[in-house]
Design goal:
- It is a single chain.
- With 104 residues, the protein is mainly α.
- 64% of the residues lie in helices and 4% in strands.
- The chain is built from four helices and two strands; from the N terminus they run H-E-H-H-E-H.
- A two-stranded parallel sheet has the order 1-2.
- Helix 3 packs antiparallel against helix 4.
- The termini are far apart.
């Protein structure tokens, strides 16, 4: 009587329903080398260290190569920023050493 007007609930495929809330199959990870490159690059600016600048450039390059091989790695911007700050820090260190402005 009153039940005749009620429409049944739609049927769902359990496989589709469980995939809707599942985690993505490959989560992106941040490259540790990229983070280390940025840290070394910033320190090379603060401490004016040529060695830290060279390390930052090397770590940034290694991180970018790793990201080309492994698409789940993230942090290209960090790697590039580490390379740039490392290069600036290394150049500043050379300029300061050449002009005698080291302060020591």
């Amino acid at each position: 009587m009153a039940d005749e007007n009620i429409t049944p609930a739609p049927e769902y495929d359990d496989a589709l329903a469980s995939d809707a809330f599942a985690a993505p199959p490959s989560e992106r990870r941040r490259s540790g080398k990229a983070v280390a490159a940025l840290v070394c690059g910033i320190l090379s600016l603060v401490v004016v260290g040529i060695i830290l600048g060279i390390v930052a450039i090397g770590l940034g390059t290694a991180a970018r190569k790793d990201m080309e091989k492994d698409p789940t790695l993230d942090g290209k911007g960090l790697a590039v920023a580490g390379q740039v700050t490392g290069a600036i820090g290394a150049v500043l260190a050379v300029v300061f050493l050449a002009t005698g402005l080291t302060g020591f």
